[in-house]
Amino acid sequence: MKTIFIISSKAGNVYPSLEDEIIALYSKTDLDFKVYVTENKNSIKEIAKKYSEEDCVIYVCGGDGSLNEAAVELVEKKASLGLIPLGTANDFSKNFDYSTFSLKDTLTPILKPCDIIQINDTFCINILSFGLDTIVLANTYRVLSKFPSLKSRAYIFGILMSIFKPFDLNLDIELNLKDGSTFKTSDLFTLGAVCNGGYYGNGFNPSKNSIVNDSTLEIILVKKLGLFRLLNLLPLYKTGNHLNSPEVLSMQVESGTIKSKDKVLANINGEIFESNEINFKILKSAINFAYLGGIKH
């Protein structure tokens, strides 16, 4: 089986010796391998697509956005996907135990299926979120563009820039639940998240129940909140202890539709988009994944 490494050019700044270490390790084996360093914004997609029908493992050496770029090309394909977390937040990796990870682990990966979310005409391996948290992300990007040295600390400034402005979403939501029933609501919401994984936004834990290969999604909906209540809920949302709050709805779902007369600001693994309608569904065991660390749950 072939092993492909795609090193994000940004990740090279975090781990400058990575390429040399991979070559040194694999040169001592009889394994077929190839190392790529991204050259442009389409590199990851192009390389993943090139090997998608081969018997191989493609390790993305980068962050959540880079991982999702590769995942989109590998849905229901022969190739497997792996992650060496070298991004800003590395939230998807928090679903696993990378505490003892070393490059040697890539020599003998455990390959298992992983679920993925189909969202309109694209895919998401981790979390789709919408509302206030995406506004926070947009402001975080603005901070990073001016002060890149802040790295993950920029999220703090993104939060402060966002939470003091009144905000709500008027949404019509229809969900197909795991138990076969249907849930419908029309209400004002502050934010929401459709979760395959459990972490996003630099460690926020909206879904303690999510496991990436359990054949279900969890949707979290936070009803409209005033500033005081929002400030009280944020620490709970960060640690995953918000699910018993009266303003929070949590359901196990297989698919759903989120509609609004106004454009909804949403994001997939850090990629921001706008839409009046978001359709999503789980694709069970749709991607092969290299489990380098055991699932935490």
TrEMBL record:
Gene Ontology annotations of biological process type: phospholipid biosynthetic process
Source organism, top-level taxon: Bacteria
PROSITE patterns: DAGK
GO molecular function: ATP binding; kinase activity
InterPro entries, per the entry: ATP-NAD_kinase_N (IPR017438), Diacylglycerol_kinase_cat_dom (IPR001206), Lipid_Phosphate_FormReg (IPR050187), NAD/diacylglycerol_kinase_sf (IPR016064), YegS/DAGK_C (IPR045540)
Cofactors that this protein relies on: Mg(2+)
Stated name of the protein: Lipid kinase, YegS/Rv2252/BmrU family
Species this protein is from: Peptoniphilus asaccharolyticus DSM 20463
